[in-house]
Amino acid sequence: MARLQDKVCIVTGATSGIGKRTAEVFAAEGAKVVIAGRRDEQGQAVAQAIGARCDFVRTDVTQEAHVKALVDFTMARHGRVDCLFNNAGGPAPVGGIEGIAVEGFDAAIAVLLRSVMLGMKHVAPIMMRQRSGSIINNGSIAGIRAGYSSSLIYGAAKAAVIHLSECVAMQLGEHSVRVNTISPGGIATGIFGKA
């Protein structure tokens, strides 16, 4: 039997890169996967390539209403959420601290950190009721060690993701819900190439 047989998994940032490959592996392992991303055409293509075990919901993870709609869709379709992979990400301002534009800072924090909080906020009540679930948040080696990103803001946001995950793990662990981060180094994806 596949390791994720009939588990219900949400993967954000799944129109390319790490998220796309994760969705493919989850489905191959038997999961029912709901993928999310902003790019409708790419998302539909990924879902179609994965097959009947996969649905795409166009989602801007910086918007709470979109994240709630993603989780609501998953519950209406499958009746549960076993796994959330908060993977969506994007670039952050580069350069010295003295030149960082506030607008760029806020936009990066919304994509890299607020999206993680929103995903956890909306699946936590479901997983607490189920007394089971796994939340995986994509951190980065740049959140653990300085100098691993060309962006100070990216590193700081990922450090916040890692610490927020540890704090939420303490809360949700009492309800048999796991919260973990992964912290990959450089991976040759489209976003990495743009950076």
Largest sheet entry: 6 strands, parallel
Overall number of strands: 6
Fraction in beta strands: 15-25%
Q: Structural class, please?
A: alpha/beta
Write the element-wise H/E pattern from the N-terminal end onward: EHEHEHEHEHEH
> Given the C-alpha coordinates, what overall shape results?
globular
**Mean pLDDT level:** 94
Oligomer: single chain
Termini distance?
40 Å
**Gyration radius, in Å:** 16 Å
- In terms of per-residue confidence, which ranges show pLDDT below 50 for 5 or more consecutive residues? none
> Helix coverage percent of residues?
40-55%
Strand order of the largest sheet: 3-2-1-4-5-6
Helical element count?
A: 6
Layout of secondary structure:
Layout: E1 8-11, H1 17-28, E2 32-37, H2 40-50, E3 54-58, H3 64-78, E4 83-86, H4 102-130, E5 133-138, H5 152-173, E6 177-182, H6 190-194
Parallel strand pairs: 1-2, 1-4, 2-3, 4-5, 5-6
Helix pairs in contact: 3-4, 4-5
Structure commentary:
The radius of gyration is 16 Å and the shape is globular. Helix 3 packs parallel to helix 4 and helix 4 packs parallel to helix 5. It has a 6-stranded parallel β-sheet with strand order 3-2-1-4-5-6, with helices on both faces. The termini are far apart. It has 6 helices and 6 strands; from the N terminus they run E-H-E-H-E-H-E-H-E-H-E-H. Helix 2 links the parallel strand 2 and strand 3. It is of the alpha/beta class and 195 residues long.
Can you describe this structure in just a few lines?
The protein is α/β, with parallel strands linked by helices. Helix content is 48%, strand content 16%. The protein has 6 helices and 6 strands.
